[in-house]
Amino acid sequence: MPPTENTSSAPGTTSTSGTPAIEFKDVEKRFGKTTVLKDLNFTVAPGERVTLIGPSGSGKTTILRLVMTLEELTGGFIFVDGKPLTHTEKNGKRVELPSKTTRAMTTRIGMVFQQFNLFPNMTVLENIIEAPVHVLGKPKAEAVKEAKSLLEKVGLGEKADEHPTRLSGGQQQRVAIARALAMSPEILLLDEVTSALDPELVGDVLGVLRDIAETTDITMLLVTHEMQFAREVSHRVMMFDGGQVLEEGPPDQIFNNPQHERTRTFLSSVQ
Fold first, then answer.
1. Closest C-alpha among 130, 147, 139 to residue 182
2. Are residues 66 and 123 in the same domain?
3. Can you give the residue ranges of the ABC transporter domain (predicted)?
């Protein structure tokens, strides 16, 4: 179950709840000659909701994409439930794991992107059952039943047979959230899920995410510029700049009494 109160752990330390859901160990990511992340060490406890904040280009989305294996690590290791995700260490050397092993690990992780990435030629229901049936091997009837239940959960029960192009941006993003949940993920990654929406549609999507946070024990690692949302759903907030953690702590501490001048400057610009 998720922590019952906001908790803070220093970067690189293991949560007292046992094996971390996610662990970053000496993680480095470079694009060409540009280093985006360097010596990144932190953990996310099972059921914990951690929000990454900071200016654009600070490496936040790259962190999510590394966990989802959409980007390759330049150095270091990522562990999911204590197991290496893409690389392990053998005889003192960093060794890449077989792709089959990594793919099996990522079935436990769901991600919702800024853009909805729905298949326009499929109905809403077909979008949601595609991965459970063809990746998890779930019987179609079972997948359909669960998909319809998820559509009800996100307030779109009547849209199962519509195509995405006939939905608003907020509705499409709620379908994308349902699609991610259909894989029964242990970890949910959320990357600026409201940034592509018109302002009047943001509330509906955030409402769905608040409900997920309150009614499930899914571990959540999210990137957002919606500071009030971060304050409400997070157990811990981490301030990033230049690919490094400047400070972290419970939302009340970060938003009401930030210790780092860069955090204060950033928050004054977005709140």
1. 147
2. no
3. 22-267
DSSP per residue, 49-80: EEEEE--TTSSHHHHHHHHTTSS--SEEEEEE
- pLDDT tens-place string over residues 187-203: 999 999 998 888 888 89
Contact between 24 and 212 (Cβ < 8 Å): no
Note if the pTM is more than 0.85.
yes
Q: Which of 157, 184, 211 is the last residue of a domain?
A: 184
Q: What is the pLDDT of residues 199-257, one digit of tens each?
A: 888 899 999 999 999 899 999 999 998 999 999 999 999 999 988 999 999 999 999 99
Same structural domain for residues 22 and 41?
yes
Cα separation, 191 vs 193, in Å, equals 5
CATH of the domain at 5: 3.40.50.300
For residue 204, tell me if it sits in a domain: no
> pLDDT (tens digit, 9 = 90+) per residue, 38-76?
999 999 999 999 999 999 888 999 999 999 999 999 999
Distance CA 129, CA 110 (A): 14
Strands 49-53 and 75-80: unpaired
Same domain, 223 and 103: yes
Structural domain boundaries enclosing 44: 1-107+189-195+219-271
**SS3 state at 227:** helix
For residue 35, being part of any structural domain is answered with yes
In degrees rounded to 5, what are phi and psi of residue 171? -65, -40
